[in-house]
Amino acid sequence: MSARGFRFALIASRWNDAIVSALIEGAKRALTETSADNESVEIFRVPGAFEIALCAQKAAESGKFDAVICLGVIIRGETPHFEYIAASAARGINEASLRTGVPLLFGVITADNVEQANDRAGGDQSNKGYEAAMAAVEMVNLFRRSFGDGG
Prior knowledge:
Elements: E1 8-13, H1 17-33, E2 41-46, H2 52-61, E3 67-75, H3 81-100, E4 104-111, H4 114-120, H5 128-147
Parallel strand pairs: 1-2, 1-3, 3-4
């Protein structure tokens, strides 16, 4: 699989920035490993996970990107806020992908605590940013091969 000739948007929340920054680095590493050049990747930062879906939809609707990689971290607290944000982010990203026909990849960590989130944002290939970017490359190649879309 190659990312050469495709354009990618990374939509990343600023909330839990240290962990999200590791997800961004994982995604960039995956795209570099699959031959994406720096000019083919654009990063958009949003306040939190709730705002990811709208920005991702705008990026998808722009026609500038073959895939949109959504990155964030939601850590369970002591109130139901976690459930509302996690469900809204997942539903919004899914609906935006279905509405636009552009692959929107879900690289949003939902964890019970900071340790779990850090484990999912590690430097290896289990980094959820890396995984989401590799899935994006797979999807754009599938779409081009099967439907003549992309690039």
